[in-house]
Amino acid sequence: MSDKTYHAIHITRDRCIGCVHCLSACPTKAIRLRDGKAVIIDELCIDCGECLRVCPHEAVHSHTTSFAALDAFDYKVAIPSTVLYGQFGGSTLPTEILSALRRIGFDEVYDLSSICELNCAATEEYLAEHPRPRPFITSTCPVVVRLIQRRYPSLCGQILPIEPPREIAAKILRTILPKAVNVPPEKIGIIHLTPCPAKMVSINSPATLAKSYLDGAISIRDIYPQIVNALRKSEEDALMRHLFPETQFSGIGMGWSLSGGETRGLKNHRAVAVSGVVDTMRVLDQVEAGLLQDIDILECTVCPDGCVGGPLEVENRFLAKSRILQLVDAAGERAVVDPKDVSRLYHRNFLSFDHPVEAVEPRPLDRDPAGAIRKAKRREKLFAELPRRDCGICGAPDCRTLADDVVRGQARLEDCLFLADKAGRREGPKTRAGKGKNDGTKKEKR
Question: Exposure string (b/e) for 185-208, b if CB count within 10 Å is 16 or more?
Answer without folding.
Answer: eeebbbbbbbbbbbbbbbbbbbbb
